[in-house]
Design brief:
Strands 2-3-1-9-8-10 form a six-stranded antiparallel beta sheet, with helices on one face. Helix 5 (220-231) packs across helix 14. A hairpin with a 2-residue loop joins strand 4 (58-60) and strand 5 (63-71). The chain has 453 residues and is an alpha+beta fold. The chain has helices at residues 17-27, 87-94, 144-150, 192-205, 220-231, 247-254, 270-283, 311-325, 337-340, 372-375, 377-391, 404-412, 415-420, 424-432; strands spanning 3-8, 31-37, 40-46, 58-60, 63-71, 104-112, 117-121, 131-134, 138-141, 157-158, 164-168, 173-177, 211-215, 236-241, 261-266, 287-288, 303-304, 328-332, 345-346, 349-350, 396-398. The longest helix is centred in the C-terminal third of the chain and has 15 residues, at 311-325.
Length: 453
């Protein structure tokens, strides 16, 4: 996790850079670097995770590049010190298509002053925030509120998932490409390749000397993460808020190869919940609300200036605060299976009203792909929530369920396999490993319930 801010220098006016950077620096607390180049200011805050400490922006041949996130395959591009060091050379070799060569979670801004062009890119699922506006020059930031409040921008856009945009320096869009195209053939009749892909996705996200952690519930998504980390002999911590979770299921999970995981049970009090809520509401960036996206008149783009009683954010904030105290700064998220492996439904039954698939995959997948929640909808809203809360603590969120190979292997499964069980690959993997789970149950993160007085 890092953060950046780019703006045409003439737009700064009397704005204080340190004040502008106060919120941004939470995402990148280790190092701050700022340069002026060709009438633009480039500011970057680094959260150092791996490789040699390398300050941004990257500059070469009149090209300036900033990025936020992690690129897992950077070593395949040469003998380089840090993942971002590959970006400009890849751009010089492949042009705008360079982003299709990357495997990771990232947001990228690249200025080519030789061609007077700007490239802005998300990763496949838009896991890292990148907002931009244009007023006589570009303003680009990891935080929306800086554009809306500090620069008083109105026409603010967020880079769409799976999208790379190319502009000229006059703000005109030149070209749009996709980062990745999924194959929709449903051709595989067992889960072997999905399991292998998921193991690899977790391995590369856990390949660090930093402490990692997960949130552990009695549900499928965090359970399968807990299981696979233990099967891979990876040391980690887990955090459980005791609310509506099935405690017997959780205890059985904790007894499974317990030497590879340390769990922290949390019983929130009303005052702790209220304090966490107050902190989030007073400090979080503008995020997408899964509640208020339905109020198109008041919030036409879905963004709100706070979380507006999104209770999951308050519980997550409390967990992240505890994890940071324990020197854990890498969070392996369980985000993704709800949206991809059933779209909040199973066997024709909706778990949520916004499900389009009702948990039923047709023989012709292209007839429904991509359903709204696959890239957008709750996928975008819940990533926004997790990144927004993680930003307050300098914690890097990583998303193994959104690894392109994991998603592709799921899409390749036959309709019979997809429809046979709720979140069928997860159910299969937990079953063959004799790991506790409650079949076909969807509870959700109800951290605001059963609070202690």
């Amino acid at each position: 996790m890092c953060s950046f801010l780019i703006f045409l220098k003439s737009l700064q006016g009397n704005k204080n850079i340190d004040k502008l950077n106060k919120l941004l620096k939470l995402r990148g607390p280790d190092y701050t670097n700022m340069i002026d180049f060709n009438n633009y200011t480039f500011l970057h805050n680094l959260l150092h995770i791996c490789g040699k400490v390398t300050l941004q922006p990257f500059i070469k041949d009149n090209i300036v590049c900033l990025f936020n996130g992690e690129i897992y395959n950077y070593k395949s591009f040469g003998d380089i010190d840090s993942d971002g060091c590959c970006l400009i050379d890849l751009y010089l070799q492949y042009g705008q298509e360079f982003v299709t060569k990357l495997d990771g979670e990232f947001a990228i801004a690249l200025f080519d002053f030789n061609k007077n062009e700007v490239i802005l890119s998300s990763d496949i699922f838009g896991t890292k925030p990148l907002f931009y506006a244009y007023e006589n020059g570009f303003i680009i930031s990891s935080f929306r509120s800086i554009l809306s409040k500090d620069f008083n921008m109105i026409n603010i856009k967020q880079i769409e998932p799976n999208t790379c945009l190319k502009f000229n320096l006059d703000g005109q869009l030149i070209n749009t490409i996709s980062i990745h195209k999924f194959c929709l053939k449903q051709k595989k009749n067992n889960f072997d390749d999905w399991i292998l892909a998921f193991e690899n996705a977790v391995k590369k996200r856990a390949d660090t000397n930093k402490n990692i952690f997960i949130t552990l519930s009695s549900g499928y998504d965090s359970g399968c993460l807990d299981l696979i980390l233990k099967k891979l002999n990876i040391t980690f911590a887990s955090y459980t808020i005791l609310a509506r979770e099935r405690i017997d299921t959780i205890r059985k999970r904790l007894d499974y190869m317990k030497e590879y995981g340390k769990n922290h049970f949390i019983k929130l009090t009303e005052s702790e919940f209220d304090e966490s809520k107050k902190y989030v509401e007073n400090n979080i960036d503008e995020i997408i609300s899964p509640i208020l996206t339905q109020n198109k008149n008041k919030f036409p783009d879905g963004f709100v200036p706070h979380t507006n009683n999104t209770w999951a954010a308050y519980g997550l904030n409390y967990i992240f605060d505890r994890a940071k105290e324990n020197n854990s700064i890498i969070y392996l998220s369980g985000q993704g299976p709800d949206e991809i492996m059933g779209d909040y439904g199973f066997d024709g039954k909706k778990f949520k009203h916004y499900s389009q698939l009702n948990g039923v995959f047709p023989k012709k997948l292209s007839s429904v792909f991509p359903w709204n929640n696959f890239f957008n909808g709750t996928m975008r809203a819940f990533i926004s929530k997790e990144e927004g809360v993680a930003s307050l603590h300098g914690i890097e969120g990583r998303y193994p369920y959104l690894d392109k190979n994991v998603v592709q292997e799921y899409l390749w499964l036959s309709p019979d396999l997809k429809n046979g069980n709720y979140k069928s690959p997860l159910a299969h993997y937990m079953k063959i490993n004799n790991y506790a789970f409650d079949k076909n149950v969807k509870i959700g993160f109800k951290c605001h319930q059963k609070l202690k007085k």
